[in-house]
Fold these 2 entries.
Entry 1:
Amino acid sequence: MLSIGHKSLSSPLVLAPLAGYSDLPFRLLCRQFGAGLCVSEMISSHGLAYGQSKTISMLASCDQERPVSFQLFGADPSIMGEAAGILASRGPDFIDINMGCPVKKVTKRGAGAALMTDIELAEQIIRAVVDQSSCPVTVKIRSGPDSNTICATEFSRMAEANGVSAVCVHGRTWKQGFSGQADWSIIKKVKDSLTIPVLGNGDVQT
């Protein structure tokens, strides 16, 4: 049994979020086929804070998919905190902070995996989200910016110290994107250094 914060999951298998795919119907299917938890597509913190209709529509949910996690992205601590408060008011089981997306349109704004190059800013964002959330907060990261800067363990310790309830580690670097192979030895190092749950991501084929 896997427990995150005060919530227990029926299975340790968690559906990783994927933009353009992880909408409500897809999440419901994955829950039916054994996922203990599903995570939404990336939700823009600015979109939530400014009440954009397209962003609001991504919050569609129902009781059948619970527990469910909604994932926020952004690089402004105050906006991320505000968005977390808005999201928490809708009663998700978890809020996940995306600090692992390698896509240029996300990282060029300093969000996603770019936050792994600025641990102080990442810490401010985590604190802001945790402070405004009434549910457990998790963080999705990568092994590091590149092969010369593997910082997942240090980064995860910081996240745990600031109130995060679980960390998901994709065993690839930002520079790798979705190429090459995931290094699960890095995920193990993170697991061995934390007391909170650690989820492994990357090259899970079945």
Note: The chain has eight helices and nine strands.
Entry 2:
Amino acid sequence: MLKELRNLYHGRSKRAHRFRYALLAFDLATILFVIVTSFLPMASWIVVADVAIGAVIVLDFVARFAVEERKAAFWGRLTTWADVVAMVSFLAPLLGAQLGFLRVLRTLRLLHAYQMLGRLRQDFRLFRKHEEVILAAVNLAVFLFVMTGLIHATQAGRNPQIGNYADALYFTVTTLTTTGFGDITLQGTSGRLISVVVMIVGVTLFLRLAQVLFRPRKVRHKCPSCGLLLHDADAVHCKHCGVVLNIEDEGLV
């Protein structure tokens, strides 16, 4: 049983890749569920869905801990504690709609895992061609949803300007883009600190996305001599050491 789990989580077979893609799809569906239900009044079907999602998270968490070789390091990861918070939030329906947004942190981990990136490069030409842009956009989107969820969790019910998830999202976007209309402000010291984080980190991620969008496209190809990883798409020689490169261009002009 343990060997089978280890193959699913760390193996290279098609079955293992399909399993990990299914986990990624579950993460995305969970995020969508949290966003949609934030606009709805609490109902019995939401409670049932919360508990069902929480049960899946618990099973996944236990399985990952079982196959983890470094048990101590497992508890030192931010993603582990994000999962613990997610389990508590979904298994406690009264808090689930407020804290379930932390589930988004697992999506960030999965998208940056080496095996997942390697599989995406292998399976999708679009990903290989625009990898930096896609990752920069994902980083910005994840930060946007995490901060929106944090604002909604800490301000809804005590700040009359934050009535639902849309209000929190609107504030996050206007703050992140430095538009600053001022029609919504966060209350208290914690609200001001959250605003500072949104402005500093959000602007940094936004500028990173703009940088990769507008600079000349680079391809990933490790130089056999100096190890330089990014090169111009039409590069023949490494800019750093001058060695001849053999970049696979897939017929790109």
Note: The first helix runs from residue 2 to 10.
